[in-house]
Automatic annotation (TrEMBL):
InterPro entries referenced in this protein's UniProt entry, alphabetically: Chaperone_Skp, Skp_dom_sf
Name assigned to this protein: Outer membrane protein (OmpH-like)
Family membership: Belongs to the Skp family.
SUPFAM superfamilies the record matches: OmpH-like (SSF111384)
Region span, Disordered: 148-173, 191-249
Domain of life of the source: Bacteria
Taxonomy of the source species: Bacteria, Pseudomonadati, Bacteroidota, Flavobacteriia, Flavobacteriales
GO function terms (MF aspect): unfolded protein binding
Organism: Polaribacter dokdonensis DSW-5
Single GO cellular component term: cytosol
Length: 249
């Protein structure tokens, strides 16, 4: 991958680098101004040395020496190993570099890469096929992560946003709306209850009608059974009478 290309295409890095460059330019200007001032003091001393007393010369030399010490102190403060440049770069650039490294690790794990080389490193690379360059993939991963973080931040802002104070008119409208909603709910509940009651009434009537029909059928069966038995008895009586008549003859 090409770290330089990736960083040049990360907006946060460009912004951080511009901020850093502006600070560096400001620091260098201050150092240059002080260095020029020291040179002016040296030049003035050289030009005036012939007419100055020994004490004045020593005083001016001491002043120049103090200015030089101060200049070196500022140089160390701004550009030393743990100076402002190091701290500001760490503050501004390191989070972005961490984004890149996190994206690289994510891609490497997802694609099962054993190694990911950086083109601009000291590693000598005689040839590199572009199809193995994951720079664009790293950028898209960073963009996706940035978008997710922005959405998360927006959601958090919405949650943390203070609720607007409700005016009296707004409160009345809210109450009217709630009352209307409650009436609708009550109307729907009443309608459902009426429907259920009507269903129950119909079911009860149907049950009663079925019971009446069953009783009528039962009564009819009883009458038929009684008529059948009566008919059989009459038949038996007739047969007995015939048998008796035969015996008499």
């Amino acid at each position: 991958m090409d770290m330089e290309y990736i960083l040049e295409n990360v907006p946060e890095y460009i912004q951080a680098q511009n901020t850093l460059d502006a600070k560096v330019a400001k620091w260098r200007k201050k150092l240059d101004d002080q260095a020029r001032h020291i040179e002016v003091l040296k030049s003035d001393l050289a030009n005036e040395k012939a007419i100055l007393t020994k004490d004045l010369i020593e005083e001016k030399e001491e002043e120049i020496s103090i200015k030089q010490v101060e200049l070196r102190r500022l140089e160390s403060l701004y550009f030393g190993p743990n100076g402002d440049l190091f701290l500001v770069r760490k503050q501004l650039v390191k989070p972005i570099q961490d984004q890149v490294y996190n994206a690289v690790q994510s891609i490497a794990k997802r694609k099962n890469y054993d190694f990911v080389f950086e083109k601009s490193s000291d590693l000598v690379m005689l040839y590199s096929n572009k199809k193995y360059d994951i720079s664009e993939l790293v950028l898209s991963t960073i963009d996706r992560t940035r978008l997710q973080e922005q959405k998360k931040e927006e959601r958090n802002k919405k949650k943390a946003a203070p609720k607007k104070e409700v005016t009296k008119v707004q409160q009345e409208k809210i109450e009217q709306k709630e009352e209307l909603q409650n009436k609708k709910i009550e109307a729907v509940a009443k309608k459902i209850a009426d429907q259920e009651a009507k269903k129950k009434e119909i079911a009860d009537k149907r049950k009663a009608l079925m019971k009446q029909r069953e009783e009528k059928r039962k009564l009819l069966r009883q009458k038929k059974e009684e008529a059948r038995k009566k008919k059989e008895e009459e038949k038996k009586e007739k047969e007995k009478e015939k048998e008796k008549n035969k015996e008499d003859n």
